[in-house]
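Entry 12.
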Amino acid sequence: MATAASNASPGLVASLNGRFHRTALTLYMAVVVAHWAEHLVQAYQIWVLGWPRPEARGVLGMPFPWLVSSEWMHYGYAIVMLIGLFMLRSGFTGRSRAWWMVALALQFWHHIEHALLLVQAQSAFRLPGAAEPTSLLQLIVPRVELHLFYNSVVFLPMLIAMYLHLRPNAAERAAATCSCVHRAGAPTWRQPVAATD
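Predicted 3D structure (tokens):
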């Protein structure tokens, strides 16, 4: 006789890292790529089109200029990135998990930088020698270049992790519990187990 616990559906995190891992990763990566593209457009506006930095606002910043200067929006995206990396990590195994954790660690630091910017934007606190909200590394690297760098160094290990995740070796395939890769000879959520006598 089946118990109530065995019939209970898995929690949100277990589902996101199990049967819905591929869907969750696809949606998450769409948000990440869209944000990264905004930074690339802004860089293009500055370095190729020669626009002054205050005028280079990316795609969404053109009709909504407040987006570029909103520390709440920047911090919100940084925390969403961090939460996504954290919540989707247990679906990765082996080499892909190692690369995903590199992206998580780098995004944690990126998030700290945005938290520091947000605190300064909401208070009179400034870093020594800074007249406006400034992150730590922004003291030596201009903001546009710094955040393009941050988004790049988080995005690249994510791409490597995704590539390795979808092309696991035998040990990683055996350890996989998510829906991203069909495991030969092993049932998955898409292949119900046949009843036995």
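Annotation: The helical segments are 4-7, 12-16, 21-47, 66-69, 71-87, 94-121, 143-166, 170-175. The chain has one domain: 12-175.
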